Amino acid sequence: MDFRYLPMTPEDKKEMMESIGIQEIEELFSDIPESIQFKGEMNIAPPASEHDLMKELQTLSSRNMNVKDYPSFLGAGVYDHYIPSVVDHVLRRSEFYTAYTPYQAEISQGELQAIFEFQSMICELTNMEVANSSMYDGLTALAEAAVLAASESRMKKKKILVSEGLHPEGFEVLETYTDGLGLVVERIPLQEGKTDLEHLKQEIDDDTAAVILQYPNFVGSIEDLKEAEAIIHEHKALFIVSSNPLALGILAPPGNFGADIVVGDCQVFGIPAQMGGPHCGYFAVSKKLMRKIPGRLVGQTRDKEGTRGFVLTLQTREQHIRRDKATSNICSNQALNALAASVTMSALGKKGIRTMASANVKKAHLLKEKCKKAGLTIVHEQPVFNEFVIDMKQPVREVNQKLYQQGIIGGYDLAMSDHTKEGHMLVCVTELRTEEEMDHFVKTLEGLV
Amino acid sequence: MIQNKEQPLIFERSRPGRVGHGLGDIDHTNEKVEDILPADYIREEEPELPEVSELQLIRHYTSLSTRNYGVDSGFYPLGSCTMKYNPKMNEDVARMPGFAHVHPYQPEEQVQGALEVMYHLQQSLAEITGMDEVTLQPAAGAQGEWTGLMMIRAFHEANGEKGRDKVIVPDSAHGTNPASAAVAGFTPVTVKTDERGLVDLDHLRELAGSDTAALMLTNPNTLGLFEEDIVEMAAIIHEAGGRLYYDGANSNAILGISRPGDMGFDVVHLNLHKTFTGPHGGGGPGSGPVGVKKELIPFLPKPVLQKTEKGFTWDSERPQSIGRVKPYYGNFGINLRAYTYIRTMGAEGLRKVSEYAVLNANYLMRRLEPYFDLPYNRHCKHEFVLSGKRQKKLGVKTLDMAKRLLDYGYHPPTIYFPINIEECMMMEPTETETKETLDEFADAMIQIAQEVEENPEIVQEAPHHTVVKRLDEALAARKPVLKYGDSNQD
């Protein structure tokens, strides 16, 4: 069979084999012991034509209920936001997506500059001094932040205190990352939907490497970073904030409150949900941690004629130089998605991001009011960005089944990660939800209680 | 087209009052945020994001793209990175709305199509690698390595063997190998390469023992050579009680030819953005699925995808699992592209991929052999290494030759890696390149070798035709400017 990705012709093959001095291609594999040569054909589906495969995959795609066709009230770390058309047009420029890590700076100025701009935008949003070129996602970035904090104490401080307002999968990832290194993750409970700072005061000690808060937190509330900071720094622990970067379009940024490390996920900026990945983590630190930040950093410099240019820099931090002394093994990151986020942030601009972030606040508020009017129970009365919790007093999976029948994608079932939260639905409203969709949602819920 | 040498930053194109978004009158409620949120929660200073029109934005990024070089621009023989063609169909599939716009927390019955693709991809990868089960969760190769090592750790601990804290890594290994071992809590130890360019078996025997957790290996190794003693190496490690980890960075050489599972490996990761055409994206996103043999299945990251009578479901009840390594279910968007590729090629096509990748590499190696030092004169696999020792004696470094290649319109090979080869150049042409391209590239390399002898300055001063000349990396590191508004000045 002929394959469109394989240009080898019989003539070329013959000429090439002659020039190497072999009769058969198999000779090139003669150093593979007979016993481990694979005989026969692998048991995978036969080659498919472009048309047939496209059709088959279209059928599979259409079997999924997608958030662009059905109104979604599902968030919990992955959000349905406005994606400007320009984003995909830029991503489709194949000079970007078919390149690799910009090792050869002179022919990679486009990518390097785009990353430099991304780093700058993340610093602006978080009000931090240094940001890297991206991480796999917000929650692995958070786990790496915890490891960085412990390594700052030369692994002497073993304790990471984490607010229960963190994304539940954040805990899971954090536990896996810290497990290999002998660190201990301890939870600080919530009180009325916010981190119990009194509890934090009791738990924090000189063995605490870092304290982690999510902002806004997983149940939607906006944490009091200022009060938390005073407690954390009094004990010389590092203050790590995991933050939705879109929320920082309207909320006071963590950098204003003395955060040492700020991480989060840029999925909110032009990156489709795509079943949970790839998204795009960001990682920002204060200047004193600049030489400890994981991942790639792009810096500005000059060429020998004085022209401005960009290079990968401070590489002595990274695995390919430090090898077993590295505190992070990250190599490939999410460069293309960082580009998507940059394009989106550029399209929004300093005014647009506030407009979009404010619309989330207002629409969440509107839906909350509608829920209350319909007699639904709001679990915590806290200021929120775009999520809050409704107590449905019945299993959320059943509620979601009813919503599904109405063509609505319901909220996150908090009982999935905490069985004491049976009936609690985490509802998300982005700028894309219309009042009509909200009314339909509320009416359906109203009919269930 | 002649470009301006300095490309303005998008911040420098910004003018107050311009917008590039189409949010419209999204803010139709009459309420003010100030009436909803307490005043001290609200940001006072606006973030200095650029204010540009849509056309300005497009011109900015289009202009940046023209200052970048991808596989679609030209030949990209970057060794160990498998810069093969990225099929356009894959891009279209990844953008289908039922794949691009599904949320990971939608109930399973709403996303059966996505789960089906994931399941079939897992099955295909298990067959290709000769393993028993595969997880798609790891985000990239390095995360796959760490995931695999954490599983090996859990395996030894479950067997009551807590003293296994060493991971053996060849001196030619990629830097992520020792780094992954370290972040998984192991101490990496280095095994030497012998004069054949293969792992020194005697040294391996010395190192293997009751403290050995695992041996990490790429096969073909980073010199592009097949570790022909692999069966014996596996026996040495297994007899010592350790496990074998396969770094799949070089799997483009072995598809349908020899499977890691049959070689004796217990854990395997694959870089779907290398062998399986997920685009490299300028440095990611990648995807690093991990396959394991039966005895390691209980330790797979959770949840694990299962096929049941009710359809595809997630199993989270995995008491021995190492836990979660990444939120949600891995880089689905990249996995979709890999699946599309595997389905396009089938077993027949994948075997041809490796045959032609290896033929291309050997052809290019033999064409260049008379002009550069070839440290290991034997058939290579999908890539090979040359040394620029001869040229260095004439005062021209491998770095200079790499920069000179830019003037000829090529992306240079990987240089100074592996670290055990002096003035190393590591070339991986891949199977998607034509003989004409290989010949033209070889001609350019030969021309450069001549320049080194006749006119070394032109090589030492290269590149001459790029948008910037050689950049001052020392300045960048000494006085870091990492964001707009910082300055290299004191």
TrEMBL record, chain A:
It comes from Alteribacillus iranensis. It catalyses: N(6)-[(R)-lipoyl]-L-lysyl-[glycine-cleavage complex H protein] + glycine + H(+) = N(6)-[(R)-S(8)-aminomethyldihydrolipoyl]-L-lysyl-[glycine-cleavage complex H protein] + CO2. Residues 4-444 form the Glycine cleavage system P-protein N-terminal domain. Keywords: Oxidoreductase. Belongs to the GcvP family. N-terminal subunit subfamily. Its EC number is 1.4.4.2. One of its GO terms (biological process) is glycine decarboxylation via glycine cleavage system. The glycine cleavage system catalyzes the degradation of glycine. The P protein binds the alpha-amino group of glycine through its pyridoxal phosphate cofactor; CO(2) is released and the remaining methylamine moiety is then transferred to the lipoamide cofactor of the H protein. The glycine cleavage system is composed of four proteins: P, T, L and H. In this organism, the P 'protein' is a heterodimer of two subunits. This is Probable glycine dehydrogenase (decarboxylating) subunit 1. Coiled coil: none annotated. GO terms for molecular function: glycine dehydrogenase (decarboxylating) activity.
TrEMBL record, chain B:
The keyword Oxidoreductase applies. Pfam families: GcvP2_C (PF21478), GDC-P (PF02347). The modification N6-(pyridoxal phosphate)lysine is found at K274. The keyword Glycoprotein does not apply. Transmembrane segments: none annotated. Coiled coil: none annotated. Residues 354-456 form the Glycine dehydrogenase C-terminal domain. Keywords: Oxidoreductase, Pyridoxal phosphate. Its cofactor is pyridoxal 5'-phosphate. GO terms for cellular component: cytosol; glycine cleavage complex. InterPro entries: GcvPB, GDC-P_C, GDC-P_N, GDC_P, PyrdxlP-dep_Trfase, PyrdxlP-dep_Trfase_major, PyrdxlP-dep_Trfase_small. GO terms for biological process: glycine decarboxylation via glycine cleavage system. It catalyses: N(6)-[(R)-lipoyl]-L-lysyl-[glycine-cleavage complex H protein] + glycine + H(+) = N(6)-[(R)-S(8)-aminomethyldihydrolipoyl]-L-lysyl-[glycine-cleavage complex H protein] + CO2. Residues 30-300 form the Glycine cleavage system P-protein N-terminal domain. Its EC number is 1.4.4.2. One of its GO terms (molecular function) is glycine binding. HAMAP family: GcvPB. PANTHER family: GLYCINE DEHYDROGENASE (DECARBOXYLATING), MITOCHONDRIAL, GLYCINE DEHYDROGENASE, DECARBOXYLATING. The glycine cleavage system is composed of four proteins: P, T, L and H. In this organism, the P 'protein' is a heterodimer of two subunits. Belongs to the GcvP family. C-terminal subunit subfamily. The glycine cleavage system catalyzes the degradation of glycine. The P protein binds the alpha-amino group of glycine through its pyridoxal phosphate cofactor; CO(2) is released and the remaining methylamine moiety is then transferred to the lipoamide cofactor of the H protein. This is Probable glycine dehydrogenase (decarboxylating) subunit 2. It comes from Alteribacillus iranensis. The gene is gcvPB.
